[in-house]
Amino acid sequence: MSYPVRYYCPHCGAVFELQREGYLADKSVTPYPLVGWEYVAPDEDFESADGVRLVCGEDIAGGEESDGDVVRWTGERSSADDVEDPTRESPCGEDLYLSFVRFVDGEEVEPEPERTHTTIAGDGPSGPRGTSGPRGPSGPSGFGR
């Protein structure tokens, strides 16, 4: 038997209900997917997935065996402190991710932080006559002419 469980969009605070089984344990609702989690649409079999990818404001109707909508946006707004922009139009149409607790070999898996890549620009400054490295003073005494 499924129950409506309430969440809110982390972008704008729009409140929605998701029909789901009570045994699933929530990890988080985030504006980005957790690294290593696999997400499915709410009208797919998300109970065997790591989470659900939703679009803020998009109702998802249940199938023939369902008692109603799988996802229903309530028209309410959350005033939680972690909403990115509480003044933003609601619902905002952005993607959001409901992640469930995952276990591997009986241990809860913590999400890895999102990897960031840094690009170092160019080869650095050019020295005299095209050599690389910093420019120093010219002349034997260390002072330029």
What does this structure look like?
The chain has no helices and 10 strands. The chain has 145 residues and is an all-beta fold. The protein has one domain (2-103). The strands form 3 sheets. The chain has a 4-stranded antiparallel β-sheet with strand order 1-2-7-6, with no helix packed on it. This is DUF7969 domain-containing protein. It comes from Halobellus rarus. It holds the Pfam family DUF7969.
Number of discrete helical segments: 0
Rounded mean pLDDT is 82
The shape, in one word, is: elongated
Helix content: under 10%
Return the string of H and E elements: EEEEEEEEEE
Beta content? 25-35%
Q: What is the radius of gyration computed over CA atoms, rounded to a whole number of angstroms?
A: 26 Å
Describe the main β-sheet briefly: 4 strands, antiparallel
Cα-to-Cα separation, first versus last residue: 88 Å
Strand arrangement within the widest β-sheet reads 1-2-7-6
Total DSSP E strands: 10
